Amino acid sequence: MEYKGFYLVSEPATLIKGSGAFRHIEVGRSYLSKHFSISFYPLCKVPSTKTSSSAKVKPPKEIKIGRFKRWCIDIGLWHTIKDLKILFENHKSVVSHYKNIKARQADFIYERSSFLNFGGLIISKWLKIPHFYENNGIKFLERKRHFKSWLNWLWEYLEKTAYRKSDYVFFIGLRGNSIHLKTKNWINIENGVEADFLQKFVKHEKQFGTVINICFMGSLMQHHGFELLIQALAKMDTRQFHLHLIGAKFDAIVPKLEPLVETTNHGFLNREELVETLMTMHIGVIPDGNEFVSFMKLFDYGASRCLVVAPKLKNLKYWFTEEEILFFEKGNDVSLAQALTQALRDEDLIPNKGNKLYNKIAEKHTWDQVFQEKAAIISKFLS
After folding, report:
1. Beta-carbon neighbour count of residue 366 at 10 Å?
2. What is the Cα 267 distance to its own chain's centre?
């Protein structure tokens, strides 16, 4: 018997083609479908098919905030009201979603968690079927970090309660360790890479000439800490380096980079184009990140046998060793500059660490292995 699951997504931003979240969802749907009959079900409006690769970062407009609004923001009233509106909007259609999913006879719900959206969990309880969360961010922590609200304590309680009430939670990276749940219905799971993507580089050897190619992949956002990389490059002799940008939203920073280092902005690349480009790369850089976060780009870097230069984060130190990654001190541009310079001076560093990381990923971090583990857990609840 093939069990039928519904893959629920609630955030429109995660469905923008070209984003890391979109790729993660695509991977999840594809690999879960190897074990179950999976139907994709958005609880939100799906954005247009325009890819984020074409998005350009416009200079921020100066927004004038009136005294009353500023006062409301400062005391926490403004975002309290906004949060209550989000909570209402997220659940006003839960009954119609329930009817649709019931009519299509689901055996379980697999839901990507989002801020103040408990629709999938509620529907699963009404239908008396198992519910599973995939967590790619502790929402109340992210919200509290950026916005002042009188009800942050309540949002924390509701989110933790949702995790406890779900049948099982898959925390991506080391996020499960960050909220200290006392229940045993969760596990930390790292990201991975396609086995056929790894196979493209099975006999690959890095070729070295007069230039070392550094690459950064992503749809650029503030939390990527790209300014740290710019500061590090400003402290280095970069004549032997060439920086390659792969992804989206780089237009605004290229002018800052060009005086420091030779730079190429490749834009968004599909998986086949990415293989071709990574063949010529030597270093994959991760400038910054949250202590508990997983990075999909790391697995693409490692699959192509690049040396990964990354900050000493709890998640990375948990899953990988210093034999596999060249670590630098988090938030320290001097330490990052020293790491990149070390890679330039030590001709064995790139192939040694790059090959060891490749072997670790091939052994433990293919998508087939990741979702085999998830499917085994889900199957226990279905049987």
Report:
1. 21
2. 19
Delimit the domains of the chain by residue range.
Answer: 4-192+367-382, 195-363
Both structure tokens of 285: 């850089």
Task: Write down the residue that tokens 């247009």 correspond to.
Answer: 48
Strands (E), the chain: 4-9, 37-42, 108-112, 131-135, 168-172, 186-189, 212-219, 241-248, 262-267, 283-285, 307-311, 326-328
- DSSP, collapsed to helix, strand or coil, labels residue 254 as helix
Write out pLDDT tens, residues 212-225.
Answer: 999 999 888 887 88
For the stretch 51-74, pLDDT in tens is: 444 444 454 456 678 888 888 888
Question: Cα separation of 222 and 241, whole Å?
Answer: 24
Token pair of 325 as six digits: 């990654």
Token representation of residue 316 = 């990375």
Distance CA 110, CA 33 (A): 12
75, with CB counted inside 10 A (0-12, 13-18, 19+), is exposed
In whole angstroms, give the CA distance from residue 172 to residue 374: 12
Asked which of 159-163, 176-180, 333-337 is least confident by mean pLDDT, the reply is 176-180
Q: Which amino acid is at 293?
A: V
DSSP class of residue 117 equals B
Task: Identify the CATH class of 195-363.
Answer: alpha beta
DSSP state of 346: -
The token pair at 322 is: 């210093």
The answer to whether 4-192+367-382 and 195-363 have equal CATH topology is yes
Mean of pLDDT values over 286-299? 92
Q: What does the block give as tokens for 303?
A: 């699959």
In 281-321, at which residue ranges do the beta strands (DSSP E only) sit? 283-285, 307-311
Contact yes or no for 155/163 (Cβ under 8 A): no
Amino acid at 74: D
- Can you tell me the distance from the alpha carbon of 163 to that of 232, in angstroms, rounded to the nearest whole number? 40
The 10 Å CB-count burial string (b at 16+, else e) for 256-281 is ebeebbebeebbbbeeeebbebbeeb
User: Encoding tokens for residue 12?
Assistant: 């429109």
Q: In degrees, to the nearest 5, what angle opens at C-alpha 268 toward C-alphas 291 and 34?
A: 70
**4-192+367-382 belongs to which CATH class?**
alpha beta
Q: Model-level pTM?
A: 0.89
